[in-house]
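Q: How do we represent a protein-ligand complex in a form that can be generated token by token?
A: Start from the inputs.
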Amino acid sequence: MKPQLLQIAPMMTHVEEALENAYQVHRLWQQDDQAAFLGRVGADIRGIATSGHHGAPADLLDALPNVEIIASYGVGYDAIDTADCKARNIRVTNTPDVLNDAMAELTVGMMIGLCRRIPQADAYVRAGRWTGGNFPLTGELTGAHVGILGLGRIGKEIALRLQAFRMRVSYHGRTRQAYQPYTYYPDLVEMARDVDWLVAIAPGSPQTNGIVSREVMQALGPKGSLVNMGRGSLVDEAALIELLQSGELGAAALDVFEDEPNVPEALYALDNVVLSPHQGSATEKTRTGMGDLVIRNLAAHFAGNPLITPVV
Ligand code: NAP
Ligand code: 8YV
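Then emit the structure tokens for the protein with NAP bound:
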């Protein structure tokens, strides 16, 4: 008998095929009456395949008394209450590291796009405005000072790439990292005051909720740029919009938002922002690697082997 697995949302074809081969898969999003469905099969489900976005809410877990493992597609697991899972004796896995390069690449791309005004320059040429005069001069990354909020797996790859632009790198986190060559700021406001760019790449959590506060963004100031690649919850989005509108904050490049996929329309009207639909890891290669980790973690669990990338 194949173990029974609950899939929360659609996944890449190769992941769905692998799951279908190894498990009896139930697709939650395809059920018209999810409560009735869970009442029927809930006690048979031993594993969950989900995404970082969908997570596994407590009321769902209440309906799955025999679930042993949640394999999540994504490195961030803020949509899963890991303490609750531990209490329920449920293992949780995520997909770290395989997405570091893609994330760092898009971060640098967003920064260049913002300071060299690539979206506006593209629109300028397409509108036939070049014949009427040259595009206005822009800023540049080279030599600027960047502060990284969250010098973790991805943050370190961003730092490496930004040094190719001869940028000075500082960082903020809860702990000083003894073997990192960058300047540590125990205080985020102080770092924001000193840097030209603030890159947020910390996890979503109750502790990081709103960590990029109005005060932090005011410290970054009219010449400063915020890049949020971590989670929308890190930034006070209402304050961000007000400060961008008033010019108290210079500019922002945003891949993540408070209420995805809903983006505040006020941001559409601003010329000093670059917007991206949460696509930091969204390359064929990287998403394939993430999917492979979901498959491998589930396989390891059901074979009684150590998990590849456990969270709890
Ligand atoms: P990681 O290796 O765990 O690094 C997280 C970093 O955040 C650590 O340096 C940690 O430093 C810092 N941090 C954690 N809590 C903090 C707090 N309360 N205050 C200040 N700093 C804190 O994680 P990662 O693999 O680099 O991933 C980071 C996050 O990126 C993910 O959790 C996810 O939310 C986001 N992400 C977004 C996308 C996207 O598509 N946009 C893709 C992948 C990941 P300390 O422990 O010293 O505090
Ligand atoms: C994914 C992410 O888009 O890994 C993460 O934490 O935010 C992204 O890689 C997301 O998790 C997919 O649901």
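The longest strand covers residues 45-51. The chain has a mean pLDDT of 98.
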